[in-house]
Design brief:
The protein has 205 residues and is of the alpha+beta class. 39% of the residues lie in helices and 17% in strands. The protein has 8 helices and 6 strands. The strands form 2 sheets. Strands 1-2-6-5 form a 4-stranded antiparallel sheet. Strands 3-4 form a two-stranded antiparallel ribbon. The radius of gyration is 18 Å and the shape is globular.
Amino acid sequence: MRRAAKSFLDTMRRRRTVREFSDRPVPREVIEDCLLAAGTAPNGANRQPWRFVVVGDAGIKSRIREAAEVEEVAFYKGGKAPQEWLEALEHLGTDEHKPFLEEAPWLIVIFAESYERTDDGGKTKNYYVTESVGIATGMLITALHLAGLVTLTHTPSPMKFLNDLLGRPDNERPFLILVVGYPGEDAMVPDITKKPIEDIAVFIE
């Protein structure tokens, strides 16, 4: 058990967010298996309130980038972001330009479903939606990493444009865009550290 836990820790310590992607194709079957793994996540009342819209079409990816960059310009240049927030992001080298939305072979747009529509036109409430979708997203990122891929979480704000572009109903709220693929040849990751155990956990024994 201890060996398995340590081995998994070593594997996950090699995971890093990437912003430069290769256009090298990734088989759809790999994405499907990772999505099925994410679908095993614990969730409220087993309602499974997640919807994964997987986009590989170049035209739609281009439209997503165009719409996302409108919001990003407002964030970085238009005063939406407090200066403190911009300073916190500075060491990561992010800005309003999001070429990865077109470069990566797949965008997985994750939606949180607040309720289900029944066949008779009624509604069935979902429970702990944000928590459930967050857990599933974390498991999806892990599955993709274990499959040998890299990811980037992207959350332009607001994201309602994704409903329109992807034809999703009002009971689904965009949660985030997960960019998926192989790292580009020029991919760089920030030199960062993670907090030690004493800074993230409290044991009461």
